[in-house]
Design a protein that fits this description.
mainly alpha
């Protein structure tokens, strides 16, 4: 069952990529490899007509960063960061049109699909291995007592 779920996620990600390659027929949408090539071709055309500029992408977590860097590399763009920048910051030189019309929207859709999958897997594993109750913590009225608010992580000082 888990393999089927992963396969469905892979297919969904490929369909998203085909959408951003501006596929015009069902056959094209199914051809994820040609979608990547069309996007690379579009990137090359944009780079001839428009100058690439440096972008700073601040990503919320390591999963998003890994996905974004893979997407950049897929299109032949070299991600980097400057010393002192956060590990979830990624720099890249791309045209404004490509960043705004293709790269960022595609990343957002891929990231949403991947996050939903990871959340589903995480909940399933926790339910099966740790405890089945996935309800949120009870919310109590009032403020947290000041003495406890000053305590550090896991109740330490």
């Amino acid at each position: 069952m888990q393999e089927e779920e992963e396969q469905r996620l892979i297919e969904k990600l490929r369909k998203i990529e085909a959408l951003f390659a501006r596929a015009t027929s069902a056959g094209e949408r199914a051809a994820a490899e040609s979608a990547r090539d069309r996007i690379r071709g579009r990137l090359e055309q944009l780079e001839k007509a428009e100058r690439a500029v440096e972008y700073r992408f601040s990503l919320p977590d390591g999963w998003s960063k890994s996905l974004f860097m893979a997407l950049l590399r897929r299109y032949g763009i070299k991600p980097y960061r400057y010393s002192g920048q956060r590990r979830t910051t990624v720099m890249a030189r791309v045209t404004r049109t490509f960043a705004n019309d293709v790269l960022w929207p595609e990343f957002q859709q891929l990231n949403e699909s991947l996050r939903a999958h990871l959340e589903s897997v995480t909940k399933r594993v926790i339910t099966q291995a740790i405890h089945g109750d996935q309800a949120d913590a009870e919310e109590r009225p009032g403020q947290e007592p000041e003495a406890r608010a000053r305590q550090g992580f896991l109740g330490g000082a």
